[in-house]
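wait is this the right file?? whatever heres the structure
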């Protein structure tokens, strides 16, 4: 089977003092939990190595950003779409804000990179795909980010956009709050 991968345009949003179905037939999961957890861990390592090579600070893993990323990856897999917006049309920044709120801070900014690959993807190939896209590369190398949340979700037969293929969907949510 030919390997296919798609990227979604990287997006960022910033704010200053703002922001307070049924499952498809294919089994959804994190693939083998250890495999998707390893993919997430390796993406974090590769992103931080890249940032170090460009004189940027390492990103800390954020449970709140990871929860937002997990929700989005799972929703896209179950509903068969690929977009920064949620299935209900909510923009990515509003989705992330439900998990990673301004909560008494004066500055808030988030960004997001997405990809899907069939049948699987390694951390180094995910990073390579993002680096070959100017918009994704810009998100990876944005100096203001302090935290990242990662989600890799595997589905054996994803509907809609994925055409029933076996796919792994990766969401990387980046953020800073001060």
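ok assuming it is, sequence goes like this
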């Amino acid at each position: 089977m030919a390997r296919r991968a798609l990227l979604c345009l990287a997006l960022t949003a910033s704010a200053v003092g703002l922001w307070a179905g049924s499952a498809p037939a294919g089994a959804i999961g994190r693939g083998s939990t250890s495999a998707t957890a390893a993919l997430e861990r390796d993406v974090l390592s590769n992103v931080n190595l890249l940032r170090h090579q460009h004189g940027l600070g390492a990103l800390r893993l954020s449970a709140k950003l990871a929860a937002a990323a997990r929700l989005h990856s799972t929703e896209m897999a179950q509903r068969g779409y690929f977009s920064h917006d949620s299935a209900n049309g909510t923009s990515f920044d509003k989705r992330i804000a439900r998990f990673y709120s301004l909560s008494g801070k004066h500055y808030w900014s988030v960004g997001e990179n997405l990809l899907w690959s069939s049948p699987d993807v390694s951390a180094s190939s995910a990073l390579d795909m993002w680096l070959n896209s100017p918009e994704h590369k810009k998100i990876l190398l944005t100096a203001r980010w302090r935290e990242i949340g990662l989600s890799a979700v595997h589905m054996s037969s994803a509907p809609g956009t994925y055409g029933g293929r076996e796919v792994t969907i990766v969401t990387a949510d980046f953020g800073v709050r001060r």
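The first helix runs from residue 33 to 53. so i think its the right one actually
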